[in-house]
Amino acid sequence: LEEKSQSWLLRLFNSSLFDIVIAMEYLFNSKETGNRLFDFQASSVDFYLPQLINMYINIREVAEVIHPYIIERFNVEFSLECYWLLNAYGVSSFKKNKLKSQGYRLQQLILNGLRYGTDNFNALSPESHYSNGLNYEERSKSEIGPELEFIKALMNIGHKLKGVGSKDARSQLLINELVMVNLNLPARVWLPLYARSIKHIVLRIPNTASCVLNSKDKVIFFHLSSTMSEPWLEKLQRIRDSSPYGRHPKWKLLPVIIKTGDDLRQELLAYQLLTTLHNIWIEEKVPLYLRPYKIIVCSSNSGMIEPIVNACSLHQIKKNLAVHAMGNSSSEASHPTLLTHFLGNFGVMHGESFLIAQQNFVESCAGYSLACYFLQVKDRHNGNILLDSEGHLIHIDFGYILSISPRNLGFETSPFKLTQELIDVMGGIGSDMFEYYKILLLRGLIAARKHHDRIVNIVDIMIAGSQLPCFRGGANTIKALKNRFHMGYTEQQLQELVEALVEQSRDSITTRLYDNYQYFSNGIL
Fold this sequence. Notes:
CATH architecture of the largest domain: Orthogonal Bundle
Number of domains: 3
Mean pLDDT: 84
Order of helices and strands: HHHHHHHHHEEHEHEEEHHHHEEHHHHHH
CATH superfamily of the largest domain: Phosphatidylinositol 3-/4-kinase, catalytic domain
CATH topology of the largest domain: Phosphatidylinositol 3-kinase Catalytic Subunit, Chain A, Domain 5
Helix content: 40-55%
Number of strands: 8
Largest sheet: 5 strands, antiparallel
Shape: globular
Low-confidence stretches: 117-137
Strand content: 5-15%
Number of helices: 21
CATH class of the largest domain: Mainly Alpha
Structural class: alpha+beta
Distance between the termini: 64 Å
Strand order of the largest sheet: 1-2-3-5-4
Radius of gyration: 24 Å
């Protein structure tokens, strides 16, 4: 029987069905298949890099089988991400732990393999490597020192901003600090957020176009190439016109948010889960919309976030409407809503432009409703929900998922956020688009259930030895996640479930109370 089982496994390993998803599951459960990682595209493996590093740190047997792969992939971008993740998990504290010292040894191996001597970013010559024709398609190991110092310089700006009281003073300090960074540019340094998709070197940071974003006390965001409400193409052209390098045909503007004072490993996990859901719905041809944004973890309290361009928070939209409505005595003007914004930006309710935006809104609202339900996303106030220029609703900030909520009060009890304001944009209860919303919820639930193992495995691997607060519930976190896919339900029961979820969420009293709390405590509309 054992020989037959081994034969079937061998067939699976050699079949076209054996993909990176199965490989990761089998690697975690059986501590084998490490050499098969070489058979997959690098981008497929890179998606699971947090899981590989977590297993490397916490499961010695897995570390042994995947070590050759990590060493073979010793290019600069890959090694840097490994180094930063190892650093974020504090492997230096395991230096004398016989069971977990392999993570520390790997970190030292990466540093030694990319040893960079005495160069540092602040000592770089400002000579333009861009203009002298140097090829930047391939990174050299000698560039690792300047790159580490460049990222360190950006993160240090965030740490400096923490000690400054007023927003005006922070903004001025940001400009001054970026001027100092620009003294050492152009240089052969890059933004890791775009390292795989766009080969580039950094020429200059537009310091006067950057800004400090509103955030929690102790947490600093600053956005290189902002302001938030300006259309992206207009912003791009304005900055290009003022750039001394703007005439070069390969010039690009790459936006990035630098975040310090907070752990982005959980945001990275949310990115993986949202991307997996997004891919499942594409494969199953379900027209649900999600917009995952990339995350780079640089340490346990700093990193980079991909900004979503041409989008504005619901809070800012309503605030702008209120400002424009001042002096207008009509009730609609004094109580601006999301529907007011849609009518103002997309035209009359049954016009072509409005209907396209409304469909985008419904498909994205349904996508994020399911994502928030599966992942138990909390802290869903209007500052954490964006609307883009095409009408898509986009959720950001996944600091509270799975088994944690703000202050662990579990206050937001509804499955997802579905206020009357959102329903009004769909056309109201009983409208065709509201019914379409419920149909999408059902189709999305069925498709996600079919591939639920892809979601569960990502979480399951990360729980092992994890320090993330979203796993505070331990084994119950996985059990509850599996239960939300309702594997034992018939399709009829799933239809009834969707109706129940919508009814529980529709203008929920706890959602309204949480929004009111955010309004009175933080001024969020």
